[in-house]
Amino acid sequence: MSFVQLYNEKELLASVSLGDEKAFHVLYYHYSPRIYSNLLKLVKSADLAQELLQQVFVNTWLRHEAIDPEKSFRSYLFTTANNLVIDFYRKVKRDKVLMDKLLAAAQEYYLHTEEWLHEKETMHLIQAAINDLPPQRKIIFTLCKLENRTYKEVSELLGISPATVNSQIVKATSTIQKKLMANRDVAGILLAYLILR
């Protein structure tokens, strides 16, 4: 039984919301290793992962009065961490070498992380975005991006030009990416990049 389980987590969270630093430290030592592990897989830098980890908990403490003991603190922390990684990605988006390393790390994250629920939720978001596309665009996107058919194959199958296929793919990709960005879920951004590129 963990230290957090020994104490009631809801009671700890209630104490934290009232400004109890000791209760916050208990939660920090319980959750920080797992958060750090996933940050490290995403950014591939021990120093950066540690920096982001500290920022996760600093941000959480600064908003401690808003903590709801009835909601999952684990999910709250992972969401905070995801948002910080998104901000990091935005800062380095022009650095292709670093971005390639981060995307490679993201693939590993999906293979090994315990947070499979986040991936499932992201897949549902992607599928919902695809379903919202106009009928022809949805078919073209599905054939090209999910079934890995070439533009030529799709153009011949549907009786349209390769240029039309390309145009529809560009529009579909833009629509899906915007919806995932609006969700502000780093898993969504990473998985979308891997699927849509």
From TrEMBL:
In terms of superkingdom, the source organism counts as: Bacteria
Gene3D superfamilies linked: 1.10.1740.10, Winged helix-like DNA-binding domain superfamily/Winged helix DNA-binding domain
Question: Which keywords annotate this record?
Answer: Sigma factor, Transcription, Transcription regulation
Listed under GO biological process in this entry are: DNA-templated transcription initiation
Protein's UniProt name:
RNA polymerase sigma-70 factor, ECF subfamily
Any matching Pfam family: Sigma70_r4_2
UniProt source species: Chitinophaga ginsengisegetis
Q: Give the InterPro entries listed for this entry.
A: RNA_pol_sigma-70-like, RNA_pol_sigma-70_dom, RNA_pol_sigma70_r2, RNA_pol_sigma70_r4_t2, RNA_pol_sigma_r2, RNA_pol_sigma_r3/r4-like, WH-like_DNA-bd_sf
Q: Which residues form the RNA polymerase sigma factor 70 region 4 type domain?
A: 125-172
The molecular function terms in GO held by this entry are:
DNA binding; sigma factor activity
Q: Which family does it belong to?
A: Belongs to the sigma-70 factor family. ECF subfamily.
All copies of domain RNA polymerase sigma-70 region, residue ranges: 27-94
Q: Which PANTHER family match?
A: RNA POLYMERASE ECF-TYPE SIGMA FACTO (PTHR43133), RNA POLYMERASE SIGMA-70 FACTOR ECF SUBFAMILY (PTHR43133:SF46)
